[in-house]
Design brief:
Largest interface: A-B, 50 and 53 residues
Helix content of chain A: 55-70%
Shape of chain A: globular
Order of helices and strands of chain A: HHHHHHEEEHHHHEHHHH
Oligomer: heterodimer
Strand content of chain B: under 5%
CATH class of chain A: Mainly Alpha
Radius of gyration of chain A: 21 Å
CATH architecture of chain B: Orthogonal Bundle
Distance between the termini of chain A: 47 Å
Structural class of chain B: mainly alpha
Distance between the termini of chain B: 58 Å
CATH architecture of chain A: Orthogonal Bundle
Low-confidence stretches of chain B: 1-21
Mean pLDDT of chain A: 86
CATH topology of chain B: ABC transporter involved in vitamin B12 uptake, BtuC
Number of domains of chain B: 1
């Protein structure tokens, strides 16, 4: 059992609550930075994939997990970031650092543009509007052929940073470190936003819009900002994704990706930065686990075991299990274990019981 | 003069093939009828959305996949290569099976998130939809299959106008079902209890309404309607597990009409069904996919509650 004695208010909003946790994250970061020395090229590519998904997940987590606005259309913003980055590098000849930053800013502005009319919509209607946006984006990419290459798509230009060629295939280690750096910056920025009045305003809006308004929060502006920040991060993830895939067209950013992104953060744990990473890990690990299981089954029984769609099948079963039994996701489960250990003899079963609640219609408001 | 473009929607393509070189009016009529028939299928799925939303305040993203599943159950019962039961027996069997399935789904899965925020149900039903698609793929394979029904491919002539019996059947059944459900919700005790339990669960409990049992019945009804939509859709064309994605379009229809309004769902379905072939015909085939969603976004912007708004302004 451990007790935390707080002697000042600053302790409540410190970046790390205590030294032990700061040390734990330092070790984790060191391990992550050392991965290119430990893994082969294939596994390193998978690790990069997980990092990119985690960045995209953090983008959506800010909007859905902290500001409480469900979006079923974040693949659209991934696409905007991806194409903006590629087009700026190719057409305007900007260096990667500039085009990458610009891609995020452009996506963020697009997000604000989308948010302004979408602010009138609540809950499920917002989800539907973003879903429609995601479906429309696929077609718009095809129709805007002169810029986006239409069905054929674009090829991600080469990245040169400080004279070093950063290529997903040529130098996977460098590309991994690039993604890690972006993920680190985004995570720190995210964590810091949550410590500011703006971050607390997000959470207030998530918990109750009316109460937030009563506390003097400008709901419309805060929501638009949440959209903007969320889309900016998602745009960066999209830009990295473009370089990761090397070639991309309209079929890369389908509505399925939007849904997968939402599913990912729900499995990871809504309302926590760690949840985005856990979710990304699940997304990255499941296909590999299936491949290994398939190879094992082939070795054991002979013949080829190929079940189409098994990946989505397992992913969705996992999601259902989580929603039913652990709505707070992987991060929530870990937190419960941690609290159980920290409080050891004092933890009671009912501590984490969900409050019984009843629903009222949204049609009469 | 109009040019015939390839790539129009399934049954409108057939309508175009039939009337090469005929007058524009007949062609427009054909487009309208096939659009109406397509729209009625969307309307039927949208009816399922609206029903569950009206009666349980849940948004069922799996309705399209329920329809696909219902169609496959009917197909498994009716087709010669499967069980080979008489068509009407298979229909009733499929509708009953899907009603039981819907009830079981509510009983085992959705009841766990009773009273939780709507978004939990949204994510849950999205997952269920994907799972249904996966299961249907395992059982019936991923190749398109056609339902052997007595109404498929039979044509009815009205002068120059050639209409498929399947299209007429879809329109008729949809109208009857909408009227039935509308009467059910506004006239019967059970229908009113359903509306009450969606408007305020706690208050409904106080009034002695068994809210959870009502939810089970709602899902059973939605399952049965999904089966009807599936049978009609499968006799209009072929189905495969990805047919369920049609649900997204039907979802747009439900929102255009006003979520939770039954006539609105039908109207929304018809609007989407009519826009598609006409956009494909007169604008460009690429736009027929976009048109419904563009309309959806316009409706959400200017009438956020849909054409047949259910919301009553009430400030707390």
């Amino acid at each position: 059992m451990r007790t935390a004695l707080k002697t000042s208010y600053v302790q409540d909003i410190r970046l790390f609550p205590d030294v032990r946790r700061a040390l734990r994250y330092a070790v984790l970061l060191a391990l992550a930075a050392a991965l290119p020395l430990l893994l082969d090229d294939f596994l390193l590519g998978e690790a990069t994939n997980v990092l990119i998904w985690a960045i995209a997940g953090m983008g959506l987590m800010l909007l859905t997990g902290h500001a409480g606005q469900a979006s079923l259309g974040h693949a659209a913003f991934l696409a905007v970031g991806c194409y903006a980055n590629a087009i700026l590098m190719e057409r305007a000849g900007l260096p990667f650092a500039a085009s990458f930053l610009a891609a995020g800013v452009i996506t963020g502005l697009v997000g604000v543009l989308v948010a302004v009319p979408a602010l009138r919509l609540h809950g499920i209607y917002l989800a539907i509007a973003t879903l429609a946006l995601s479906i429309l984006t696929e077609d718009i990419i095809v129709l805007a052929e002169p810029w986006t290459g239409g069905v054929i798509g674009l090829v991600a230009p080469d990245i040169t940073i400080a004279g070093a060629e950063v290529d997903r295939y040529g130098s996977p280690g460098l590309f991994y470190w690039l993604c890690l750096a972006v993920a680190l910056i985004v995570t720190l920025g995210y964590r810091n936003v949550l410590r500011t009045p703006l971050g607390r305003a997000f959470v207030a809006i998530r918990d109750s819009e009316i109460s937030a308004q009563a506390m003097g929060i400008n709901v419309a502006m805060t929501k638009a900002l949440a959209f903007g920040l969320s889309c900016m991060v998602t745009g960066w993830a999209g830009a990295l994704m473009g370089h990761f895939f090397y070639t991309f067209n309209h079929e890369v950013f389908t509505v399925i990706i939007s849904i997968q992104l939402l599913v990912m953060i729900v499995i990871g744990g809504l309302g926590s930065i760690q949840g985005a990473y856990w979710g990304a890990l699940v997304v990255g690990v499941i296909p590999q686990a299936i491949n290994i299981a398939r190879d094992g089954a082939q070795a054991a029984f002979g013949g080829s075991v190929l079940i189409p769609g098994i990946e989505t099948g397992i992913f969705m079963t996992l999601l259902i299990v989580f929603i039913l039994f652990e709505p707070r996701g992987i991060h929530g489960r870990i937190e419960k274990w941690r609290i159980y250990v920290e409080l050891f003899p004092l933890c009671r079963r009912d501590m984490f019981r969900r409050q019984k609640s009843f629903l009222k219609t949204e049609r009469m408001r | 003069m109009l040019t015939t473009r390839p790539g129009a929607q399934d049954s409108s393509g057939r309508a175009q093939g039939r009337c090469d070189g005929e007058t524009g009016i007949v062609e427009t009529l054909q487009l309208i009828v096939s659009g109406l028939a397509n729209g009625c299928v969307y309307g039927l799925i949208a009816l399922g959305f609206a029903l569950i939303y009206k009666a349980a305040e849940q948004v069922n993203f799996a309705q399209g996949d329920l329809m696909m599943f219902g169609a496959f159950v009917a197909l498994g019962l009716a087709n010669e290569s499967h069980l080979g039961l008489p068509f009407w027996v298979a229909c009733i069997g499929a509708i009953a099976a899907m009603a039981v399935f819907g009830w079981l789904l509510e009983r085992t899965v959705l009841r766990q998130v009773f009273g939780q925020p709507q978004i939990a149900v949204v994510i849950l039903t999205i997952a269920l939809g994907f799972l249904l698609r996966f299961i249907a793929g395992i059982i019936w394979g991923h190749d398109p299959l056609a339902l052997e029904s007595p109404i498929a491919g039979v044509n009815q002539r009205f002068g120059d106008l050639v209409l498929g019996l399947d299209e007429l059947a879809v329109i008729a059944v949809t109208l009857v079902l909408t009227a039935f459900l509308f009467g059910f919700f506004s006239r019967t005790r059970l229908g009113i209890a359903m509306q009450a339990s969606s408007q305020n669960q706690l208050a409904a409990y106080y009034m002695g309404i068994p809210v959870k049992r009502i939810h089970g019945l709602t899902w059973a009804l939605a399952g049965a309607i999904a089966a009807v939509a599936g049978i009609l859709f499968a006799s209009k064309g072929s189905i495969d597990p990805n047919t369920g994605l049609l649900g997204i379009k039907a979802f747009a229809a439900a929102v255009i009409g006003g979520f939770g309004s039954l006539p609105g769902a039908l109207a929304g379905g018809l609007i989407v069904g009519l826009i598609e072939p006409f956009a494909a015909r007169y604008v460009a085939s690429g736009y027929s996919q976009i048109a419904p969603y563009a309309v959806l976004i316009l409706v959400l912007l200017f009438r956020p509650r849909g054409l047949f708004a259910q919301a009553h302004a009430k400030k707390v």
